[in-house]
Write a structure and sequence with these properties.
The structure is a single chain. With 370 residues, the protein is α/β, with parallel strands linked by helices. The strands form three sheets. Strands 5-6-7-8-9-10-11 form a seven-stranded parallel sheet. Strands 1-2-3 form a three-stranded antiparallel sheet. α2 crosses α3, α8 runs parallel beside α9 and α10 runs parallel beside α11. The chain is globular and about 60 Å long. It starts with a strand and ends with a helix.
């Protein structure tokens, strides 16, 4: 069995409402769907949601890289040789981890369909039955965020993430308002998206500690390149620190762990190169006693599904996951997604990722008709 075709498709999907983080206000987002087809007629499908301000990759760059560099590296190869295929993609082009993630997801979907098993069985089987989910809130006024927090607690979510970073004083007010609105039985985490200097981060986090706001953790408080600064924050506060933008590869994760620059790893399977690489990171992190959380690049269903299969299969995923991307968009390109029930995401046992591509919608999305 050989790979005979690798086809990428890029389109833009509007969000239901703007999503504000420190780096950007997102109103619509690029997505790339990749199909990998074999000579026996099997087709695997993957997807990623690039955000240039965050990851340095856009829909256009992912499309070009996949067509010009990744596809030629895969054509004629055995789809079961995942490790070899990753090596060939890495040899074809440096970095571009989001584009490689989409291909990796498609390969895993393909293998699951060929073997007649869900992707989670390719990753070791189910460690947990369903994925606990954390609802993510974009930056708004304290009052608006408190209102949204109450709304989603009523829907069954027991964990909430608040984007912060534009104003340290207002950031504290945001967290205070959310905590007062939902009480002390709901987990709250804050994500600064690199907004602070180490000194400001320490001041803000310590003040929130003195106010007994009881944060589950603070995510990426300093710039991605300031590993020493993040290590200083980690040493200086009691609240756990989670690394996100500082990790785009297996080597980044090793550096964070070796330097004790965080307490937790945000393992976004769609930004580090895919499921195979993510499994290696999770194993290394587990050996070093670093728990992981599966985050999101706000993918639509195909990319979200890959993260969900990884989360149910991986022991070292110890926190509620942020696989909420599909809930933010006006449309999707699959016929039916998974189900969110009382703050959990249920993962089906259908072959591959368990999703059926809506070819008509995909065609209209690419042509800009949706």
């Amino acid at each position: 069995m050989k790979i005979v075709k690798v086809e990428p498709y890029v389109f833009k999907v509007p969000l239901v409402k703007p999503f504000r983080i420190f780096l950007a206000e997102v109103r619509s987002k690029d997505h790339m769907v990749v199909k990998v087809e074999t000579d026996d007629g099997y087709v695997g499908v993957g997807e990623i949601g690039p955000l240039p301000e965050f990851a340095g990759e856009s829909g256009a760059t992912c499309l070009a890289i996949t067509k010009e560099r990744l596809a030629p590296a895969l054509i004629g190869q055995d789809p079961f040789d995942i490790e070899k295929l990753i090596k060939r993609m890495d040899a074809a082009v440096k970095a571009n981890h989001l584009a490689k993630s989409a291909v990796d997801f498609a390969l895993h979907d393909l293998l699951g369909k060929i073997l007649g098993v869900p992707v989670y069985k390719l990753l070791g089987g189910k460690y947990r039955e369903k994925v606990p989910i954390c609802w993510a809130m974009g930056m708004k006024s304290p009052e608006e965020m408190a209102k949204e927090a109450v709304e989603y607690v009523k829907k069954g979510y027991r964990c909430l993430k608040a984007k912060i970073g534009l104003d340290p004083k207002m950031d504290i007010e945001r967290i205070k308002a959310i905590r007062e609105a939902v009480g002390d039985k709901v987990e709250i985490r804050a994500d600064a998206n690199q907004a602070y200097s180490p000194e400001v981060a320490i001041q803000v986090i310590k003040k929130m500690e003195r106010m007994n706001l009881d944060l589950q953790y603070v995510e990426q408080p300093v710039p991605y390149w300031d590993i020493d600064g993040m290590a200083k924050v980690t040493r200086s506060v009691s609240t756990p620190i989670l690394a996100d933008e500082s990790i785009f590869s297996m080597h980044d994760a090793v550096s964070i762990i070796r330097r004790n620059a965080a307490d937790i790893i945000n393992l976004k399977v769609g930004k580090v190169g895919g499921l195979r690489v993510s499994s290696k990171i999770a194993a290394f992190a587990e050996a070093a006693d670093f728990p992981c959380m599966v985050g999101s690049m706000l993918e639509i269903w195909l990319g979200t599904a890959a993260g969900a299969h990884f989360a149910v299969a991986t022991k070292n995923v110890s926190y509620e996951c942020e696989l909420v991307g599909p809930l933010y968009y006006t449309y999707d390109v699959v016929k039916e997604g998974y189900k969110y029930v009382d703050g959990f995401l249920e993962v089906p046992d259908k072959p591959g990722l368990g999703l059926e591509l809506d070819e008509e919608k995909l065609e209209k999305a690419v042509s800009g008709e949706l």
